[in-house]
Amino acid sequence: MKKGFTLIELICVITILGLIALIAIPTINNMVVKSRADAYKEQLDTIIDAARTYMSTSTNSLKLPAQTDGASTCVTVKELQDAGIIDENESLENPCADNKCSDITDPSPIKASKFNGRVDITWNETKNKYVYTYSESTTSCN
């Protein structure tokens, strides 16, 4: 009496494993892309929150634009790092650089590999508040 598996049994097992892989791989890939997109949005939120904190100090609040519609100013990531609000050694890597997030993120995601741009601060008359938006531009705000 021989012990072992028949060729049919082995083919069935390989087919079942192939079907499982066919279902699992796209699902896992979508989870990875979604987690990168979430990390991308969190990085942007962290930078914008840092800019809010920076502008809320008594010395920097004078830099806020006048409360007239469209008035604006900005603060660079380098300024936030120099002020100690964002740690200089902290990795500001962009998880969505090189289209790694496909279409899940904003229609125009930041393409740079690191966040080293600036936060533009604009007064919005209709919302009656300052609006903070991140920009890839590395030009100084002065």
Give the helices and strands, then pairings.
Layout lengths: L6 H50 L15 E5 H6 L35 E7 L4 E7 L7
Antiparallel strand pairs: 1-2, 2-3
How would you describe this structure to a colleague?
With 142 residues, the protein is of the alpha+beta class. It has one domain. The protein has a three-stranded antiparallel beta sheet. Strand 2 and strand 3 form a beta hairpin. The longest helix is centred in the first third of the chain and has 50 residues. The chain is elongated and about 90 Å long.
What brief labels describe this structure?
alpha+beta; 3-stranded antiparallel beta sheet; about 15% strand
Overall body shape: elongated
Distance between the first and last residues' Cα: 88 Å
What is the chain-wise order of helices and strands? HEHEE
Q: What is the number of strand segments?
A: 3
Instruction: Supply the number of helical segments.
Output: 2
Rg, Å, rounded: 24 Å
- Low-confidence runs (pLDDT<50, min 5 residues)? none
Strand order of the largest sheet: 1-2-3
Question: Helical amount among residues, as a percent range?
Answer: 25-40%
Largest sheet: 3 strands, antiparallel
Overall structural class, as computed from helix and strand content, comes to alpha+beta
Average pLDDT metric: 84
Strand content: 5-15%
As for the number of domains, it is: 1
